[in-house]
Amino acid sequence: MMTMSEFRSLFHNGLIKQNTGLVQLLGLCPLLAISNNIVNALSLGLATMLVMAASSGAVSGVRHFVPNEIRIPVFVLIIAALVTVIDLAMNAFVHPLYLVLGIFIPLITTNCIVLARADAFAAKNHPLQSVVDAVAMGLGLTLVLVVLGAIRELAGQGTLFSGIDLVFGEAAKSLVLHVLPNYHGFLLAILPPGAFIALGLLIAANNWYKVRADRRARAALPAAA
Amino acid sequence: MTPQARLALKNALRTGVILFVFALIGTAMLAFTHDRTEPTITRGQLAEKRALLGQVLPAKLYDNDLLAAQQSVPPDDLLGTRQASALWLARRGGEFSGVVLEAIAPDGYSGDIAMLIGIDADGNVTGVRVTAHRETPGLGDYIDRAKSAWIDQFAGKSLTNPEPKHWKVAKDGGVFDARAGATITPRAVVKAVKDALDYFAQHRAAFAAPAGEAQPTKESNP
Questions:
Q1: Which residue among A74, A85, A93 places its CB closest to the CB of B19?
Q2: Residue B165 sits in which domain range?
Q3: pLDDT confidence bin for A66, thresholds 50/70/90
Q4: What is the count of structural domains for chain B?
Q5: What is residue A126's three-state secondary structure?
Q6: pLDDT value of position B217
Q7: Is the bond into A127 cis (omega within 30 degrees of 0)?
Q8: Cis link prior to A181 (omega < 30° from 0)?
Q9: B23: which strand partners?
Q10: Nearest chain B CA: its distance from A142 CA (Å)
């Protein structure tokens, strides 16, 4: 079983300290490709989280049977099989969502954050901790994806939640927020360079915040002593 | 065989067997899921295709199973195709009533624009849909029905309405409007639809031939 503090530290690790998108900079390919609006970003983030949780749980469950020499091929095999199962199941049972995410689901296999968590964490820890770690990491990635998607969508089209009707049906079309009416669009933000620029700004902001927090902590230290 | 060699061999065999077992489990998992989901997926894909065809050719125009009436035609410059493409012949009461053509506008802003074009027996366009394109998001992608209704203006048009010389975007003196900033994309689409109508005019006789008879369009290219 796991304690509350363990639980909290795993989430702190996944969301802030080792955030996939801002600190580890792993799995940038889907991050940059899909983050052109919030709906895409959120959907892919959650799908990745699901795959990570499933694969980390599975890897952790079989970790005693996998010799060290072949652990990577076995992990890749597990991840690829799980992704394919999810891909087929989504195609069959939630077809509209599959049409939006379809081409990106197989790409999750190649997202190195999934393998990284399997090898670095799940292979050494209990299934419960591994699943929590994967969910925390996935959540961290989703968060960055959504912020990135919001920035790019707002700057690029002046809307938020466009395309939500693709996930929830035609009725959801009224949920699209036209934040900037009569906005003519800023193409750069939607194209891939916009993803790099926005991510760079996010990383810079994150680093600035960290440096400032460090300096404050150090400044506070002598006073306390 | 030295003891070390024997140990190494034993280890290699062990890891090999373990990897094999994992591969076996993975394959079994995939086979099971595939088996369980395949009927649903196939049904979904057919329904999707049928819905797409229904968007370019109104359902009241035909009473045959459009998907079953699919034919393959050799590449043709007027269709913009470089490989064999599909067409679907519609019939009502056994009479030829229309066709859906697969066409490609090869001169889009960033490569091919794949389209489905529905044409009724009199040579009027019943609908056009872009099925695949790589036009610039937010600029040239308004040809996509999911982005705007621009593509709807083709419905009802034919080679006599407007006259061939007006089968152009407004900027070039034609009747089809195009948005400022992206003329190359609609120009390519307009030309492709016009070419498809020309193709239809050339092959109409073959399309209208009673079902089961020779289809010259099919055998003209080995």
A1: A74
A2: 58-219
A3: confident
A4: 2
A5: coil
A6: 47
A7: no
A8: no
A9: none
A10: 23
